[in-house]
Amino acid sequence: MEYFEFRTFVGFEETNVVGNVYFSNYFVWQGKCREAFLRRYAPEVLEDFKRGCGMITKECSCVFQNEAFAFEDILIRMSLEKLTRTSVTMVFRYYRERSDVLELLAQGQQTAMWISPEHRLALLPNYLYDAIARFSNVPRAATPATTTATSAV
Question: Does the global pTM surpass 0.90?
């Protein structure tokens, strides 16, 4: 399976009084990983956001395996779980990166839906659908016809 990689390191502001990464930072990293993907593969999304379109998170989760601490290098691999004409579900795997060894820290999942300026569920824009689909090893469904079709939520 193909995945998008995002690297970061743990700063002091991401740790709690005990010294390990505070749990909410894994969700912040999910967002940063997703945004790094959009920046690289679908920068057109900024213009759609300015028009009032957007992505809203329907659900988000994270299951923790091991602790991470300040100054550790973190590798996040985001892969596609499910792609529909209106939403995407991504899987996130968080690793501690030491030399050539990766230790799984956590696994997360996030489902985001595309909305129109009227705040209704809408079709993913073609450029975004295509960018996401490239990370799938499942045969592609038909490309959405337009970026403006909407339906009631």
Answer: no
